[in-house]
Amino acid sequence: MDETPATPVITIGLNSGQATFDYAMAELDALVEANNMTVVEQVQQALSKPNPGTYFGTGKVEELATIVADDGVDTIVVNDELTPSQIRNLEAGTKARIIDRTGLILEIFANRAQSREAKLQVQLAMLQYQLPRLHTSASQRLDQQTGSGGGGGFTNRGAGESQTEMSRRTIQRSINHVNHELKEINQAAETQRAQRERNQLPSVALVGYTNAGKSTLMNALVQRFGKNEDKQVFVKNMLFATLDTSVRQLIFPDQKKLLLSDTVGFVSQLPTNLVKAFRSTLAEAANADLLVQVVDYADVNREAMMATTEKTLQEIGVTDVPMITVFNKADLTSATYPSRAGDQLILSAKDDASIDMLVQTMKEKVFHNYVTANFLIPFDAGDVVAYLNDHANVLSTDYQATGTAMRVELPQADFNRFRQYVVTDAPSED
Ligand SMILES: Nc1nc2c(ncn2[C@@H]2O[C@H](COP(=O)(O)OP(=O)(O)OP(=O)(O)O)[C@@H](O)[C@H]2O)c(=O)[nH]1
Ligand SMILES: [Mg+2]
Q1: Which of 217, 263, 12, 214 is nearest to 115 (CA)?
Q2: Per-residue model confidence as pLDDT tens digits over 28-71
Q3: Ligand 1 touching residue 211 (CB < 6 A)
Q4: How far does the centroid of ligand 2 lie from the alpha carbon of residue 381, in Å?
Q5: Distance (Å, rounded) from C-alpha 209 to C-alpha 198?
Q6: Residues in contact with 227: Cβ distance below 8 Å, sequence separation at least 6, in sequence order
Q7: Is the minimum distance from the CB of 128 to ligand 1 under 6 angstroms?
Q8: Does residue 240 have its Cβ closer than 6 Å to ligand 1?
Q9: Are the C-beta atoms of residues 56 and 96 closer than 8 Å to each other?
Q10: Could you tell me if the CB of 32 is within 6 A of ligand 1?
Q11: Residue 289 Cα, ligand 2 centroid: separation in angstroms?
Q12: Considering only CA atoms, which residue is closest to atom 24 of ligand 1?
């Protein structure tokens, strides 16, 4: 997407003995790359807690200033979220532009957002991030478009970069404006969701850490069980490839149908504002009948990634949706796949047998209110036969003198609807 050469940056992080420090720094590198930047040097300081004024200690800040001058690098990316004054002081002390982890993630999202809703959501998060940081420094500037309701975000490198310092009131007004627009979009989304609920199709949402393979799984499922005209979703080996929710209908050979959604991935320390701003996008997960947590099984940090996913789900209020866990990318490990133990699957999105096992598991979880029954449908009710052929799993059909005898597996609601044609014993639970 970004054709301009990567901006060289220095990454810095405070090691206060947290177990996840190395992982967080490695992830910061990946985030930096995702933002079309490249790490030329990494500086760490072991300190029990950040210096309230400058994040790093004074001596270390001087060291940083020297590195900045020697390397000719003008941007430093910090592993933590900083206070406005820490950003200001570090910029003064190092003569470099300071981007904290939150700012970095916001920039990536701004560059990736495609749909109007995603753009507005990112914009809202950015405005909220900017509000307390007004007047902090010239480099924390807002793109002039920010208030106009459709702009991409605040990274607009090079020519045309706006120097506008928005007043607090202007930002607040923009926040209200964006909120209003989002509300309108959300109402439309709500309507669509309500419509789908009326359709009574169960829904399954793919969730998990960014780059785990959610979109790849979605595509594999859609390719086999989707409608022909369904488009593939975007897949790329980069963080936050997907920001928009896609929903596709899957139809299995036994006529059972479900709705599958793919949405934004998570990352550790995902900014709270961003999570809140994406709440409506993530509502697909909250309203699902089943969550499929996708985990990159080949990643040594998968435990931490799962913990982050579960924490983020809690933040958006998704606490009581049943979940299965898919350890994906097994082809990159020495594990035997596909394999299943209870609600946990080890598989590869690139393998047909894996997709079969996933489908089997999903079906077990969501189609529990199906019944199997025998019907005898009189010839003058041919529309019922047609309906069952289209909507149910017809196990056998026999044309008899008095009508069409069918043995059918169907949703409880349809069974109730056609109960008058049931001929034999009570329905058996599926
Ligand atoms: N080898 C292997 N690679 C996979 C597998 N599944 C996904 N990938 C690769 O992993 C990368 C990320 O896949 P995506 O499907 O975009 O991941 P995602 O979870 O949708 O990521 P975000 O949209 O960023 O949240 C791509 O390069 C995929 O080709 C798998 O089972 N095996
Ligand atoms: Mg994706």
Answers
A1: 263
A2: 999 999 999 999 999 999 999 999 999 999 999 999 999 999 99
A3: yes
A4: 46
A5: 31
A6: 248, 249, 251
A7: no
A8: yes
A9: no
A10: no
A11: 20
A12: 240
120 lines ligand 1 (CB under 6 A): no
Q: Which pLDDT tens digit goes with each residue over 284-335?
A: 788 899 999 999 999 999 999 999 999 989 988 888 899 999 999 999 999 9
Q: Could you state, in order of their start, the residue ranges of all structural domains in the chain?
A: 7-105, 113-184, 201-366, 370-429
CA 196 to chain centre: 21
Q: Of all protein residues, whose CA lies closest to atom 3 belonging to ligand 1?
A: 329
Q: Is ligand 1 within 6 A of the CB of residue 332?
A: yes
Strands 7-15 and 75-78: parallel
Q: Which fold has domain 201-366?
A: Rossmann fold (3.40.50)
CATH of the structural domain 7-105, one choice from 3.40.50.11060, 3.30.450.40, 3.30.470.20, 3.60.15.10: 3.40.50.11060
Record the pTM.
Answer: 0.81
Would you mind telling me the total number of residues written for the chain in this entry?
Answer: 430
Strand order in the sheet with 37-46: 37-46, 7-15, 75-78, 97-100
- Closest residue by CA, ligand 1 atom 1: 329
Is the CB of 174 within 6 Å of ligand 1? no
